[in-house]
């Protein structure tokens, strides 16, 4: 009986959760700003690749070294409409993360592999390498990158998602990405 129950629950979990995402996304817009382009500059915008396929292109230019006085925040909001006032904060939040932790965990797990081909100047860390500051000045050129979805849940509510990222040090950089999640057909 126990084995039957375990098997049934396992089959149910696989059927409900699945190994594929129940959603696809469409990139709607990308905005970026820097409070002081002489220290760090960012210019990223959406680009139409072909009908129904969008990506973002641009650059991120750190003109000075960064250390752990640099913090990052990331918030993901969801709305069932396209109105700004309807966005609600989701559980996908990173608050006041120091640079070293962001690179060693979030960047390496979710971003690094996804941008490897479209941002060849972005840092790539092999294996168990642990990043230690400083993050040397660098210009990262981005050419037709999609929004990385590895690490996101397979099941997500459909609707509009707004991703806001802030980098703070002597300056403030801001990146906002809006995507529409739709049912994966």
TrEMBL record:
Protein known as: MD-2-related lipid-recognition domain-containing protein
PANTHER family: CHEMOSENSORY PROTEIN A 29A-RELATED
Keyword terms, alphabetized: Signal
Taxonomic superkingdom: Eukaryota
Signal peptide extent: 1-18
């Amino acid at each position: 009986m126990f084995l039957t129950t375990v098997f049934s629950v396992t089959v149910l979990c696989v059927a409900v959760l699945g190994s594929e995402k129940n959603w696809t996304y469409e990139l709607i817009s990308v905005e970026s700003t820097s409070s002081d382009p002489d220290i760090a500059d960012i210019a990223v915008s959406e680009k139409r690749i072909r009908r129904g396929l969008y990506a973002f292109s641009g650059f991120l230019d750190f003109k000075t070294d960064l250390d752990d006085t640099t913090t990052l925040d990331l918030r993901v909001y969801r709305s069932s409409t396209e109105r700004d006032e309807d966005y609600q904060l989701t559980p996908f939040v990173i608050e006041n993360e120091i640079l070293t932790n962001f690179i060693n965990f979030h960047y390496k797990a979710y971003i690094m592999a996804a941008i490897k081909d479209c941002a060849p100047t972005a840092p790539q860390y092999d294996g168990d390498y642990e990043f230690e500051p400083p993050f040397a000045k660098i210009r990262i050129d981005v050419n037709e990158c999609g929004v990385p979805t590895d690490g996101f849940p397979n099941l997500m509510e459909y609707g509009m998602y707004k991703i806001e990222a802030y980098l703070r040090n002597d300056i403030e950089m801001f990146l906002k990405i809006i995507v529409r999640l739709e049912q994966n057909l």
